[in-house]
Amino acid sequence: MASSERTPTDVDRIAEWWVDTLVELNPGVGTYIGRTTFDEQLADYSPEGHERSIAATREALAALRGATPVDDVDRITVADLGSELELELERHDAGLHLRDLNVIASPAQDIREVFDLMPTDAPEEWDRVATRLAAVPGAIDGYIETLREGIARGTVPAVRQVREVAAQARRIAKPDGFFGTFAGSAKATGGADLPVSIMSRLGTGAEAAAASYGRLAEFLEAELHPVAGERDGVGREIYALQSRHFLGAVIDLDETYEWGIEELARMVAEQESIANEILPGASVHEAIAFLDGDPSRKLHGTDALQHWMQETSDRAVAELAGTQFDIPAEIRTLECMIAPTQEGGIYYTGPSDDFSRPGRMWWSVPEGVTEFDTWRELTTVYHEGVPGHHLQIGQAVVNRGQLNTWRRQLAGTSGHAEGWALYAERLMQGLGYLDDPADRLGMLDGQRMRAARVVLDIGVHLGKQRPDGQGVWTGEYAFEFLGQNVNMNAGFVRFEVNRYLGWPGQAPSYKVGQRIWEQLRDEVARREGASFDIREFHRNALSLGGVGLDTLRSALLG
């Protein structure tokens, strides 16, 4: 994927200016892509800070509209960045920032999570951490101010999200919560002690940061909770905005809901067939119980989980490189990590632009979970690693000769990224990596969950009729429905449904994105006939970097 240098154009310069502006407005973006210029700071989450961001968005959009594309690379940048900027202005007009509170991806999590990616090897790096810790109270206070403005305008999140995030904030605020533990474990490279002055600043900063999360919890419980919305569903107008945001595409929500019901039924039938292979005559639940009782498929403790993840990932990279996919040397390293939190969820963070920080797969293991089943999780490693997110996102970073920084590191949508990762899971099945029926059942367990999420998410937020014909979707029914379609414990179901209810449009983007990726592949194959080369299709598609799915469609099909 390495390429010759392309002469930067006016469009590239606008895109680069936009990245610089984003990093300045939200230093966490800089940390994410490996720029340390503003690593001591945090974003201004106050209403004034939001208005500065919106003013910059309008400026970038005006500049982009006035630029003349010189080639296809420019045309894709103009189309995709322009769409993203326009959508951000629509989201502002809808007041979404005033109700930006959910259990997984709101400022309540962003402020804490930025510390996970900060370099912490050298004393000077810990010194920057200490300065940023001291900035947490200001960031939290600005966020509270914005939520208060939402209260004044009658634009508030659902009470369920308020309650759950307050509980998260209470955990973080404890003396042995994230900040206290993080600062107390600080060491330099090789385990050397840090200077007393830095340790003192870390301790003071951690106490202040934890206390600010205590203030956030108090505000959520005392001020926001009494006025928060009772309904979990956000309605069609907001949902359509959020769907476009996560897909980078406009879809027919009603048709997609019906397709989701059909896709879920197909996943169930496929699971039932494989269950019979595993244990003749067995139901899906009986096959799962059989596999869960197999000690050869079980890992004990997070150390064993981390080692297994790393070995599985390394093997996939070594075997696929040069035979099925283009995997440049720069991205043949993927670090598999146990996340420092216990909230649940598995996620990927891309490499820094200079690859000094590699791509990483993170597993946030819930408290009390100590056993893991390899048959369930094999496909997860392929999803997060190779040929999933790591191949997709890492190759975009490698392609710096053709793509500006925005295209390499910040562009794209959940539908593009997560759709590719689900597409990659099916690719690995086709390549023989899931030939064991147990591993295929694990893959289908995930695919069934993603199909169920399409139905649940659209159903509850649009107030659709339930698939069982027993009335309209509610938040309470969402828990029951997901519990029927995943083989996970009650804590996982609770976290996942709370996530869907508070983050409308994101969960369906996985399966809908996979659907669009497969539709595009099939259409290109139809057009090219006997000359179709799937490896070339993947190369061409991934060389674009992250884009919205409408942009991907126009780039591949013309």
From TrEMBL:
InterPro entries: DUF885. It holds the Pfam family DUF885. This is DUF885 domain-containing protein. It comes from Agromyces fucosus.
